[in-house]
Amino acid sequence: MKRRVAFVCSLALIACSLLAQGPTQVPPQNPIIGVWKQNMEKSTYSPGPPPPRGVGGVRQYAAGLDGSIVAVTFNISSNGLPSLGAISAANYDGKDYPQHTIATLATSLASHIGPQIERTISYRSINSNTVEIVQKQDGKVVASSTRTVSRDGQTMTDRSDYTDTNGQRVSNVLVFEKQ
């Protein structure tokens, strides 16, 4: 019994000494982490019209072990079927990181070596809830966007601006809700 009491007292002393040192710093979780489903009624497309009913997107963001953010985007067809849009792992440091599509990912997995990546993505934090995103193809900027997570962490707005393959200027505002 004395041993048990001494052990409990030792644990209490250790806990008190740790508390006296102050709370440990736990880095805040990035508000983007989670699964987001596009709200088509709140999203706008310019030039229009919006995609057909039932079409949209789902995005999933996860924290990498090295501090990076892993982003997976899925497109949803009018039949409700998902397809991979893109996948990347990047830090929010403004540097270019490979962005895989289903074709480059398949090539990489099949060959067991990395394919030449012509498409890259970079993220630069503007503040704790906003990031600037730049996508490049063969070193040339093809799209830029600003992604903002609302203060309550429930809505994500992605404002994009780019020129499509037909040379037409596109300015879309995609609204996503946390699932």
Describe this structure in words.
This protein has about 180 residues and is an alpha+beta fold. About 15% of the residues lie in helices and about 45% in strands. It has a single domain, classed as Lipocalin, CATH 2.40.128. Strand 9 and strand 10 form a beta hairpin. The protein starts with a helix and ends with a strand.
Summarize the structure.
The chain is an alpha+beta fold and about 180 residues long.
Question: Whole-number radius of gyration?
Answer: 22 Å
Oligomer: single chain
Structure classification: alpha+beta
Mean pLDDT: 82
- How do the SSEs run, as a string of H and E? HEEEEEEHEEEEE
- Which topology does CATH recognise? Lipocalin
Fold blueprint:
Layout: H1 2-20, E1 34-38, E2 44-46, E3 56-63, E4 69-76, E5 82-90, E6 97-100, H2 102-111, E7 119-127, E8 130-137, E9 140-149, E10 155-163, E11 169-178
Antiparallel strand pairs: 1-3, 1-11, 2-11, 3-4, 4-5, 5-6, 6-7, 7-8, 8-9, 9-10, 10-11
Which key phrases capture this entry?
alpha+beta; Lipocalin; globular; 2 helices; 179 residues; 10-stranded antiparallel beta barrel; disordered N terminus
